[in-house]
Specification:
Shape: globular
Strand content: 5-15%
Structural class: alpha/beta
Strand order of the largest sheet: 5-4-6-1-7-9-2-10
Largest sheet: 8 strands, mixed
CATH topology: Alkaline Phosphatase, subunit A
CATH architecture: 3-Layer(aba) Sandwich
CATH class: Alpha Beta
Helix content: 25-40%
Length: 452
């Protein structure tokens, strides 16, 4: 009920017609590799322009650096410990009416919205359960598809958009391994550029010898500079394709009347902490972009244009922010489901964001890890070795463990984490699991680099 009261208090004073909602998730996109987050390379001109009229969250954290669990968390405003999807193989039954958790698409469908989803990789295929609530769901026939193909499908749907308010989800895959940008984008950046090499050195990226010792068996011919250069090129390519969608929304006038959110499910290691991809709890893998642009009248009425929020938020906060700021006609039950909240008021800030990492049946990677990320401190809890504490206000890339020098701070975080694990462990998973996946989906997930 507290959430309902907050929604009423935060609702605009002028009645607003139902706003359409566009959600864009860009897989494996680190926040710090976008211009609007301070990156020196021109990787994101369209996103940067979009951010000028939006709310940009400078410290947004994903609950898990794994694609399906992270997307389920966004769509249900709940953490993996609650919803139970903790890996890309943990596909679930689509929630039904009366189930404990519902997806946002199901919620707004009941409120009269039309719904459409366009995804770019097999990990988010409808078989995963993530398509619950979407009346139109467009997915690749194979392992993945390039951003151009996904944009083409979205633009075809937007040729005759619904007259009713709609919820449109667009997912791009391209900044994910293996990086293969179109040649014209790969040629945009020079991996020997002095400023680029200095960036890698100053921010703790592995040198080539160290990288080869750790990853030589899997990537014998890749260089750290090449990996990072190709990653930036993939972002620039995805940005261009997203720009085509943003242009079409402007043609339809939806840039003035719709709420549009751009975020990522997780980041990418790229050689920091001797890690190339994702799945861990370091900042380069759990810090993500989160940029939210409201309808023109609302953002100007509430001073939500060109705004930057410095305090930490979680991606589970996105749907509650949309629900409250847009005054969506959701049920009391829907609102009670949210583990996130509206973070657009000073009194509504969170103390920390919770993240986790679980790998099953991988002997070469130790087991469960948890993190609490605050504005100043970050706490790591490991099942298999001593915990760590970082002063991320001065050490954003977690290079200096200060646990021994700050025992009181560490003990406070440990107590908070223990309470979270006890409470969420007692709840149990809220989404019912499927049995075996289809052979096609299992093969496609293995082709994407995911193994049981």
């Amino acid at each position: 009920m507290a959430l309902l009261a907050l929604a009423s208090a935060c609702a605009p004073t002028t009645p607003q017609p139902p706003a359409s909602i566009v959600l864009v998730t860009i897989d494996t996109l680190r926040a710090d590799r976008l211009g609007c987050y301070g990156y020196f390379r021109d990787t994101s001109p369209h996103i940067d322009r979009f951010a000028e009229e939006a709310v940009l969250f400078e410290s947004a954290v994903t609950p898990m650096a794994t694609t399906l669990p992270a997307h389920v968390s966004v769509m249900t405003s709940s953490h993996p410990l609650r919803h139970g999807v903790q890996e890309n193989y943990a596909h679930f039954h689509p929630p039904e009416a009366g189930d404990e958790l519902q997806t946002f698409a199901q919620m707004v469908s009941r409120a009269g919205y039309r719904t459409a989803g366009f995804v770019s990789a097999a990990v988010l295929r409808a078989e995963s359960g993530i398509a619950a609530g979407f009346e139109h769901y467009d997915e690749p026939s194979g392992v993945m598809r390039k951003a151009t193909a996904t944009t083409d499908a979205v633009l075809a749907w937007l040729e005759e958009p619904p007259t009713e308010p709609f919820f449109l989800w667009i997912h791009y895959w391209d900044p994910h391994l293996p990086y293969s940008p179109p040649p014209e984008y790969g040629a945009m950046f020079d991996e020997s550029e002095p400023a680029f090499l200095e960036y890698l050195e100053q921010n703790g990226f592995a040198d080539q010898d160290t990288f080869h010792q750790v990853w030589g068996n899997r990537f014998p011919d890749l260089r750290v500079t090449e990996i990072n250069n190709s990653y930036d090129a993939e972002i620039r390519y995805t940005d261009a394709e997203l720009g085509r969608v943003l242009d079409r929304l402007e043609e339809l006038g939806l840039d003035q009347t719709a709420a549009i959110a751009i975020l990522s499910d997780h980041g990418e290691g790229l050689g920091q902490h001797n890690w190339i991809d994702h799945g861990e709890i370091y900042n380069e893998q759990i810090k993500v972009p989160l940029i939210l642009r409201f309808p023109k009248d609302l953002r100007r009425e509430r001073n939500l244009e060109g705004t930057r929020i410095r305090s930490v938020v979680s991606t589970v906060d996105l749907i509650p922010m949309l629900a409250q700021q847009l005054n969506l006609p959701l049920s009391e039950r829907d609102l009670r489901q949210f583990e996130g909240g509206d973070r657009l008021g000073e009194s509504n800030s969170r103390n920390f964001a919770f993240s986790e990492r679980v790998h099953r049946n991988r002997e070469w990677i130790p087991g469960k890890k948890y993190a609490l990320t605050g504005d100043e401190w970050k706490y790591h809890h490991f099942a298999d070795w001593p915990d760590q504490l970082y002063h991320v206000a001065t050490d954003p890339w977690e290079s200096n463990d200060v646990m021994e020098r700050n025992p009181d701070q560490a003990e406070d975080f440990k107590s908070r984490l223990d309470r979270i694990l006890r409470a969420r462990g007692a709840q149990g998973p809220a989404l019912r699991k499927l049995g075996d996946l289809s052979e096609e989906t299992s093969a496609d997930l293995e082709a994407l680099g995911y193994t049981k």
